[in-house]
Design brief:
258 residues; mainly alpha
Length: 258
């Protein structure tokens, strides 16, 4: 994937890629009109709007119910991502499908959860899950706790990354800024995760919590600092990076205790 501005990857070429994949399963899909409308529509748009426009065209050009449409789209995803990188490079083209779920699947919780899990195994569902957390807080957090126990590292990461109160490039989750306690069982499950990819997400979630609920986050970190595993040491150290830059006495004391 040669370098160019990320938004420019969501263009006619991506429309052609999606159309080709869809046509293999649905020969009557109007690929030429689909490609034309996307090519014409994205020219003056920024990244998020380009992704949403493509998601809207998927909804317009595919026939049937949401369940039927997403069933077809899941079939074009291809093999799972075995690495801890590549979500925004090799699998960037899946982003409009994730947006499609977020926008058109909000009232179909069960089907959408399955779809988000499949998306996450290749790209990322960290943005897609957030409207579901807001609309179905208890059901969504039950699902995310289940994801935190998955054998798939991408799914485990989603359990913490999707609930981050201040996830970059996403609308903040005010409910977890007000009360982060629903996140704690998930973080507890992941505190010794062997995947660095997951560890970084847990640390980032704690870092978010330190900004709004420092006493709660500090209590968690202090409890994890008792006979910590190497994985937990890394998580704690990374979660305290901002406080360490400020020479925060408490943070430096935690790190020096390892």
């Amino acid at each position: 994937m040669p370098y160019k501005q990320l938004k420019l990857w969501f263009d006619k070429d991506l429309a052609e890629l999606l159309a080709t994949k869809i046509n293999e399963l649905k020969p009557d899909f109007d690929s030429s009109k689909f490609i034309h409308e996307i090519d014409r529509g994205v020219q003056d748009l920024e990244l998020k709007d380009r992704v949403e426009l493509i998601a809207d065209r998927l909804d317009n050009f595919l026939t049937g119910s949401f369940e039927q449409k997403i069933d077809l789209l899941l079939q074009i995803l291809g093999p799972e991502n075995q690495e801890e990188t590549g979500m925004f490079k090799e699998y960037y083209w899946i982003m409009p499908i994730a947006k499609f779920i977020e926008k058109y699947g909000l009232y179909n919780f069960k089907v959408s959860m399955n779809a988000i899990e499949e998306i996450t195994k290749r790209s990322t569902g960290e943005y897609t899950i957030r409207p579901f957390i807001e609309k179905y807080p208890e059901r969504a957090m039950t699902q995310m706790l289940k994801w935190s126990e998955s054998s798939n590292k991408h799914v485990r990461r989603l359990a913490s990354e999707g609930g981050r109160p201040r996830l970059p490039w996403a609308t903040k989750l005010q409910q977890f800024i007000d009360d982060p306690s629903p996140l704690l069982p998930i973080l507890e499950t992941l505190k010794d995760d062997e995947s660095k990819y997951v560890q970084k997400s847990v640390a980032n979630c704690l870092n978010d919590m330190l900004k709004d609920n420092p006493e709660i986050a500090k209590t968690v970190i202090e409890s994890w600092s008792v006979d910590p595993t190497n994985e937990r040491k890394w998580i704690i150290n990374h979660s305290l990076r901002n406080l360490k830059k400020k020479n925060d006495v408490w943070a430096l004391g935690i790190i020096s205790s390892f």
